[in-house]
Amino acid sequence: MADDLVLPFAVETLDLRGRVVRLGSSIDSILTGHDYPVVVSDLLGQAVALAALLGSALKFEGRFQVQSRTDGAVSMLVVDYEAPDRVRGYAHFDRALLTDGMTPAEALGRGQLGLTIDQGSNLSRYQGIVALEGQGLEEAAQQYFRQSEQIPTRVRLATGRVSLVASSSGADVMWRAGGLLAQFMPTSPERQRRIDLHPGDAPEGVSIFDQTDDESWIETRALVETIEDHELIDPTLSSEALLYRLFHENGVRVFDAEPVHAQCRCSRDRILSMLKSFSPKDRAEMIADDGMIGVTCDFCSKRYIVAPDEVETIAVAEDELSA
């Protein structure tokens, strides 16, 4: 079964466009590398799936970032999707605030979700902000498209550990994540006409035209809402098979799948550059008892050990070049 792929699809009879993502070894390497509590891994897995669904649609070599800052037990999620196919992510959490039976939405809490498109140093960044008020990542993503892009959208996300090989000693398990994005994108002017937001402060006596949702979109929503979490992470159910289950009566068409790889951007050179940006006094305070500076990458947990004079040598050499 093909994993770590984003599969674009279309259902022309419903004016529907979408993408399905299924993550296997990529999300497993991200989550097992951190060894988070289950609810934290669940949230980060959903965020990675969301970033893959949205970031894989970029038509240029840039970055798509999903980042949350909240008052919840999981105070921050950060996921970078670097086009065309690399993803990484991490979470900050307070173990003391986690409780048994806490749902991902409860662990996320209240705050903000930022969705950022970074087109590179020479182009402007675009960021959309959604208020998190206990609704979870699925609903927050739908609010983003409703408010910022004004595109009717449904999102499904799921994360879980799946048994792979049964044996006398138990079962081997791995983390999996999946998601589906469905968007109503009609081409005819008649079907495009809709009220996106209530006018709110319209003068008294003004008649507000109340237009119901398109029947095709109503049908799409009903079908998407039948998807169960296990269907998005089942290693024996392909994306094509899932789409056929949902839309075979309408005729669904799939396009070339796009790969997803878990890959961090950290390197020794980047760590040295980061340390160089600190003042000599600050760097001196970072030196451990063994006389070295230790830096751990938040994304991949890789540990770098740097000698203080290595940073000083680079700083002096760059100062001489700029003189």
Topology:
Elements: E1 5-11, E2 16-23, H1 25-34, H2 38-55, E3 63-70, E4 74-82, E5 86-93, H3 104-108, E6 110-118, E7 125-133, H4 136-149, E8 153-167, E9 170-184, H5 189-192, H6 215-224, H7 229-233, H8 239-247, E10 253-254, E11 258-259, E12 261-262, H9 268-276, H10 280-286, E13 293-296, E14 303-306, H11 308-322
Parallel strand pairs: 5-12
Antiparallel strand pairs: 1-2, 1-10, 1-11, 2-9, 3-4, 3-6, 4-5, 6-7, 8-9, 13-14
Q: Which features would summarize this protein structure in a list?
A:
CBS domain Like, 32% strand, Hsp33 domain, 14 strands, 33% helix, 2 domains, 6-stranded mixed sheet, 11 helices
Description:
Helices cover 33% and strands 32% of the residues. With 323 residues, it is of the alpha+beta class. The chain has 2 domains: 5-197 and 212-262, 3-Layer(bab) Sandwich (Hsp33 domain); 268-322, CBS domain Like. Strands 1, 2, 8, 9, 10 and 11 form a 6-stranded antiparallel β-sheet that branches. The protein is globular, with a radius of gyration of 23 Å. The termini are far apart.
